[in-house]
Structures are given as C-alpha cells and as structure tokens.
Amino acid sequence: MTEIPLQHVLFVSTALFFIGVYGFFTRKNMITMLMSVELILNSVNINFIAFNKYLFADKLDGIFFTIFIIVIAAAEAAVAIAIIINLYRSHNSIDVDETNEMKY
Amino acid sequence: MSFTLIIFYILSAAILGCGLLAVTSAKIFRAAVYLLFSLIGIAGLFFLLENDFIAAVQIVVYVGGIVVLIIFSIFLTHRSGEQMPMPSKKRERIGFIAALAGFALAHGLIYNETFIPTHQPKIEQSVANIGSQMLDTNHFGFVLPFEVVSMLLLAAMIGAIVIAMKVKPKE
Asked: What is the CATH number of domain B1-82?
C-alpha cells in the first residue's frame, strides 16, 4: 500500500491549497470565497492524514487533528452562511466590494 | 506502475481539475457542484490511504452537510442560473502570480526534504482505537479538546440562529 510516494500526495495537497488561495484572491462573491476556504481546509486534512500514515504510524494524532478541523469547518460554514444570508437581507448583495460597513 | 498508483493519479487529477473549475466557473451553482465532486475525490483519496473512518466522516460532513448548506444559501441569495461578473484582469493576474509563487516555494521545500518515517511499531487506525484514545483521560487522550469542540459547536449553533434571526422593526 505504501507504494504511493509521500511526495506525490503532498504535491496534490499543495496544489489544492494554492487553487483555494487563487480562488480566495480572485472571487468577489462571499459564497465562492467560502468554497475556496473549504478547499484550503481539505488540503490541510490530506496533509495530516498522509503524514500520520507515512511518518508517524505509531500514533493517531493526525487523525484527531483532521477530525477537529472537520468539526471546526462545519461550525465555520454554518456561521458564515448565517452572516451571508443576513447581509443579503440588509444590503441585497453579497459582493465583498459593496459591503463596506459593519452596521446598517 | 501498479494499480493503486494509477487510481491515485486518476483521483488526483479529478480533485485538482474539479477544484480548479470550482474556483474559476462563472456560474455559482456549477461551482458548488464542482466543489462537491472535488470533496468526493478527497474522500476517495482517504479511502486509498486506508483511512475509512475519516473518509466516511468526510462524505457525511462535507458532501452531505456543508455543500448542501452552500447550495441552499445560493438558492436563498441568487438567481442560480445567471453569470457572475468576471474578476478584473489585474486581480486575476495578481492572484495567479501569488498562488504560483507560493506553490513553487512550497513544492521546492517538499521536493528537497527527506522524510524519515518512525521505527516504532505501527498501530491500527481502526475506529475502536480512535474512539478509545479520543475519550481517554489518562494516556494522551483527547477528551479535553473533545469537550471544547462540543462547546464551540453549541456556540456556533446559537450564534448562527441569533445572526440569521429576523429582527422585528420597533414600533
């Protein structure tokens, strides 16, 4: 099973991370920015799982980190979407350029 | 080239291709669907790395939870078929250069690093082992972060309800 080289897994996760970074820089819509953040968090999860499997097979720490990251990503998505819907209700837009005030 | 390796390359191509389409697609609903396929590919990668539990959690939480939440919020805030305005050329170029530079730096570091695996006997990454270490109070257990995270989930749930609640206009 260990025939997949670790470097290749890390290549995939690094590429996914920077795809997410590119999306975060170029998108202006808040929901698509949230999607980019999800891609970034997932690439970190791949890294944790790969390192736990290849380098530290005597521990389970990478798995626990992955589980906690997934939990926090779920909480973050729920709060972010509540904020987005509230913002749409008050500003009628979810573009980051048009929402330049914290209080309406 | 073995069978596992071929599956790994196919999965990686699917993950990266769908991820790239998810951040560049001009229609927001399509972007959400591409994100869905990218996350399914990542779950497949976890299966390939012999981590069944995390793969199942990935499918349940991300594919079944977060993407559905995102699609619902798209329906609540957009007319889903319409095109999003394209990002300005300047912003696109700066984003591309920044991402490419970061990728080159990180990939150079990974490529030159020699990874030394541990020589301790490996333990099985089964659900039983994960569960017993998660709730262990003595030997490197994760019961305190578990409790903290449960409080965080409660706070996030209440916060989401409070934020999204409609405020009645004062008379």
From this structure: 1.20.120.1200
B92 Cβ contact list (under 8 Å, min separation 6): A26
Q: Closest approach of chain B CAs to the CA of A78, in angstroms?
A: 6
- B37 and A CB contact within 8 Å: no
Q: Hey, what CATH topology would domain A6-91 get?
A: Helix Hairpins (1.10.287)
Please report residues of B whose CB lies closer than 8 A to that of A35.
22-23, 31-32, 35, 70
Q: Assess whether pLDDT exceeds 60 at residue A1.
A: no
Q: Average pLDDT in the B79-95 region?
A: 78
Is the distance from CB of B35 to CB of B18 less than 8 angstroms? yes
Predicted TM-score (pTM) above 0.80: yes
Q: In terms of Cα–Cα distance, which of B20, B119, B150 is closest to A12?
A: B20
DSSP bridge partners of A29: A95
Contacts of B62 in chain A (CB under 8 A): 38, 42, 70, 73
Does residue B12 sit at the A interface (CB-CB below 8 Å)? yes
pLDDT tier at A12, thresholds 50, 70, 90: very high
Of the candidates A26, A53, A60, the beta carbon closest to that of B49 is on A53
| Separation between Cα atoms, residue A29 and residue A99, nearest integer Å | 11
Q: According to CATH, where is 1.20.120.1200 located in chain B?
A: 1-82
ipTM: 0.89
Candidates A3, A21, A74; nearest CB to B61: A74
